[in-house]
Design a protein that fits this description.
2 copies of one chain form a homodimer. Chain A is an alpha/beta fold. Chain A has 2 domains: 171 residues, Rossmann fold (3-Layer(aba) Sandwich), CATH 3.40.50.1970; 217 residues, Dehydroquinate synthase-like, alpha domain. The first copy, chain A, contains 15 helices and 10 strands. In chain A, the strands form 3 sheets. A 6-stranded parallel sheet of chain A has the order 1-8-5-4-2-3, sandwiched between helices. In chain A, strand 6 and strand 7 form a beta hairpin. Chain A is globular, with a radius of gyration of 21 Å. Chains A and B meet through strand 1, helix 8 and helix 9 of A and strand 1, helix 8 and helix 9 of B.
């Protein structure tokens, strides 16, 4: 196990009706004038925004509001939010929504205390050291942003997604009411499930030896998602399954189960170009990316294992994933067969919850592969490759995008 | 799943050599004059206390020290610590040791800011609302006190143990270096392992339905302990196994895996009277308590299941424990047989790591049963019974103590 630090100081309030505690929580964490930041009309139409305002009123707090956050949140609205916060002397950002609203709120929180262009935090020019306090009321179990110090924003000037991280943007509190997710359409629900499982799998694909405790935790969370995911697709109002998924989404991404080990994240990098170029939902992009990536990486590792000890480690890790997460029986089979069986079960699961299996569904054509691979391997300051569980050069990334058709 | 709040704001620094960061951490969390609070001579002899002092010196921090904490930490030393802290105007308590040193440090931290008798916090007269900040350098993986807001102290005036809880006594930081645990003798190591598994099992024995996510997490941690525990008994210097156990001990008790569900804790209550009366190690007491308790509770639940729906739920839960934690095959067996097989595996595991199987080993005689059961059912403001996974009256508790011989 590698040395690490772990810090997750967010106060979580979980359960039915708990959005009524928004005012109390903002006060607890020092806010006096709040920006309520949210996405589309559903939070308004459902009465959620009114309930939040009533809670803030009840606590004697002033507020302004800024709606309009879209999936893959844009830089434009962040600039608008920063202006508003400065003008109105706002001291607390309250995100109401999913990962997009929360990530946008984090960007505004940083930008409001920074003299330069907030994008400096996202292109690595500026480390995240201070931000206004952020709180969240989560309405989509997916991104894990409610318990993380991460934020991903799409720059409208060129359509590329970049992320940043820092303790200063970890939410002070997050209110998680599973009831708020029961009205989510099945497609978005499935995107969330896919995203949560992706966060777990990125952590699971490690080359660090002897990480039994975090292995068992990640397997446990994946098993829970495999069990609970189809339940909410079948019955969107299943509160208990929604609750299990919501807590798994937070715990799976606050990194308590990913400490002390190398992680992957190649697949997130590969997907980011899909949602930037086609504006597809991040989860849907991941649903196509993961099987393609694993197919390529497993095939190469199996082919090279005899001559390369690291590839042998990767093969063993993928076999463990197939056995312990997808309950594949290894006896009497080759490692390749076991991995392929795991992959087949993963694909079947994604199909069962209604996820796409090809990037054609986003409007992609084979000619896009070169653009995607170039963006992926040279964007974000990269020098022609991406690194995680394996290091991939541009040709290999192209091969993976090809496998998505 | 029940509504809950979860807050674990401790900053964890984990890995080899990290005690060198003690000074940096105390400064980060606002300390200027530190009480170094520790147990016996081993922390001094090993050079750990000197390394801690060097780190505090390097950060320009002043300090006093108070050693002498014993297993089952006593009220007497707490009073002494409170006096010292007031006299020396200390503003930060740094515990160096296991759960005993940490719990004693928490008691001093509360008592130093309280005008009355610190015992008021432990007998329920006073809620925990403020305390000096506490940091820890953990040397024994066991109690989970490094990541919890709990503290248990033995009152020397009557030899009884009582616990208290509160956010104010959650450590600001905890430094977890698995190397510091490799010199621990096998018996104490095994006591720690037993304690960690007990914390997980107390959470696992729930009557709350539909808690799949936390079920899978708890099972994962128990499986990790079952795998790693015997490794460190065989090879005390096995850093990787020590590291896995150390993180499992924290995650298993900061409650991230126990939220939203009823928990048991009857067995901890039953054990507390053992360590209070015989001054046995808490883990050793748990090793005797758990099998006896489970034998009694399972037998009763099986006998009454036909007429009592709650007993049916308990039987199913115990079967799940045997199947998923102890890998018992259920096919072709009665529920009782499956539970008994799980119990046999649990007993065999405890024997393998060197734990006692009878309270005779602590010097107990059958005549003690009445005293133990009375202390357990009437101490701590109880009215003749204890409640958790099941509610037990004094006669039933006597029966459980009898099963420990």
């Amino acid at each position: 196990m590698e040395n690490f630090t772990f810090y997750s100081p967010t106060y979580f309030v979980f359960g039915k009706g708990e959005e009524k505690r928004a005012g109390e929580m903002v006060k607890r964490f020092g806010g006096s004038k709040v920006l309520i930041h949210y996405g589309g009309g559903s939070a308004v139409r459902s009465g959620l925004i009114d309930r939040v305002k009533a809670s803030l009123d009840g606590a004697g707090l002033a507020y302004a509001e800024l709606g309009g956050v879209k999936a893959n949140p844009r830089s434009g609205l962040v600039y608008e939010g920063i202006e508003l916060v400065k003008k109105e002397k706002i001291d607390f950002i309250l995100a109401v929504g999913g990962g997009s609203s929360i990530d946008s709120a984090k960007a505004i929180a940083m930008g409001a205390l920074y003299d330069g262009d907030f994008w400096d935090f996202y292109d690595g020019k500026q480390p995240v050291t201070k931000a206004l306090p952020v709180g969240t009321i989560l309405t989509i179990a997916a991104a894990g942003s409610e318990g993380s110090g991460d934020s991903v924003i799409t720059n409208e000037n060129g359509n590329f997604k970049r992320g940043t991280s820092g303790e200063a943007i970890r939410p002070r509190f997050s209110i998680l009411n599973p009831e708020l997710t029961t009205s989510l359409p099945p497609y978005q629900t499935a995107c969330g499930i896919t995203d949560i499982m992706a966060h777990l799998t990125e952590r699971y694909l490690t080359v660090t030896p002897d990480v039994v405790t975090t292995d068992r935790l990640l397997e446990g969370l994946l098993l829970a998602m495999i069990e609970e995911g189809p339940k909410v697709i079948k019955d969107p109002a299943d509160y208990e399954a929604r609750a299990n998924i919501m807590w798994a989404g937070m715990i799976g991404h606050n990194n308590s189960c990913g400490v002390g080990r190398s992680q992957d994240w190649n697949r997130h990098n590969i997907e980011h170009e899909l949602s930037a170029l086609y504006d597809c939902a991040h989860g849907a992009g991941l649903a196509v990316t993961f099987p393609a990536y694993l197919t390529y990486v497993a095939g190469k590792a199996v082919a090279e294992r005899a001559a390369d000890a690291m590839q042998e480690i990767r093969v063993k890790r993928l076999v463990k994933w197939a056995e312990r997460v997808w309950s594949c029986e290894a006896e009497g089979k080759t490692d390749e067969e076991v991995i392929n069986e795991g992959l087949a079960k993963y694909r079947a699961y994604l199909a069962e919850i209604g996820m796409p299996s090809s990037i054609r569904e986003f409007g992609a054509v084979p000619e896009d592969v070169d653009i995607l691979a170039h963006m992926c391997c040279y964007g974000d300051g990269r020098d022609g490759s991406i690194a995680g569980f394996v290091t991939l050069d541009e040709n290999e990334v192209k091969e993976i995008y090809r496998l998505m058709f």
